[in-house]
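Hi U.,

Before I forget, here's the chain from the pilot set. I'm dumping it here mostly so it's searchable later in email.
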Amino acid sequence: MALLMDSFPERPLLGATQRAAWRGLPLGCFAAADHDDARNLWAPYACLGLLIDGRARATIRGSAGTREIHLDGGVAGLFGPEFEIYRSTWHCRDGRRIFVELTPESYAALGVDDELLPDALRQDLATPDPDLHGLLRAMTAEAAAGSPHGALYAQSLSQGLLRHLHRQYGGAAGAGQLRSGARLGRAQLARVREHLQAHLAGNPTLAELAGVAGVSRAHLARLFARTLGVSPHQYLLALRLREARRLLLHTALPLAQVALDTGFASQSHFGTLFRRETGLSPGAFRRSFSAYRIPGDPPR
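Structure:
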């Protein structure tokens, strides 16, 4: 579907390949124009913008009247569903901005459409919300890097953003659908674990895991966290690192192949996460256990 941001005149800071790899909410990052005069803007769904840095001034004339807004870096603006702007004049100095479109299709793709109503958000054109700022920066950094953490991470970030928006700027529907003590059953958990283990080198999604468990995507994420105390993405990362340790100790595979076989985007990405987990680089980890080799072990 056509997005509002596709018509922006500003220089995009995320390329087509980066946006295509990103599996979360429709997301863009732009070098904010020094000056822009836009007319007749409308979208049937809510949109969210964040000025990352710099300073900006906007005059917005719409169906609710005229408002002048002064923005500093870190301030976000939430445009409510079916917002209509007759004319918007924008002045910015040395700024970049993030823009996210909260389309109904995205709610459905993320599995939260049975929990959150896309049209329930209220407009707030200048909110210095540090949690919102942090989530949007994390999403943009992941997309800019080519989404190395995969679909589950992008979807988890996007779900977190939507839940924060609905807690702070609107009402949630269906909050009572999930019993407070509900967890994944033993058979459900076993199927999900088996699916993740079998697809370590791939890019499993919440939709796949929900189908394996027989629940909705939104419920899967919450049931999984309640059962194991971590998100599906965190659990997948733990499985990948465990398998990487096994390959380092029991095979002579090159480090680049270990990274590829365990689903990491690159050897560099693998090394960063492995060091964070173990305190050692993959190569140092392999060498540190060489003293415990026994006859018959493969050569290193």
